[in-house]
Amino acid sequence: MKRSLVKAVENTPANLTLLAENDTGNVEDIDPAVRRVRSTRNLKEATSEVGFVIGAASENLDLKQTLFQEPDTSLHPSSKCS
Fold first, then answer.
1. From CA 54, how far away is CA 81, in angstroms rounded?
2. 75 near 81, Cβ under 8 Å?
3. What digits encode the pLDDT tens for the residues 34-57?
4. In the chain, which residues have pLDDT < 70?
5. Cα–Cα distance measured from residue 36 to residue 5, given in angstroms and rounded to the nearest whole number
């Protein structure tokens, strides 16, 4: 799983560039966005300071159940989870 996180972060600039090329983003926003990208395997760390969470995971039922149950315990009360 650690390698998957590294690969996802590495692919971020190319993915954002593709979006910008298709008028779904701005090229000048890519570098600042990439600098903000972080990965972690710790759900509480990942969600403790965010205002919005998108629960996306591979097709692994145990992982998805954990992902949708645990954020409720670590999110700020004003945060949204989708």
1. 6
2. yes
3. 998 888 878 778 777 777 776 667
4. 1, 54-56, 70-82
5. 15
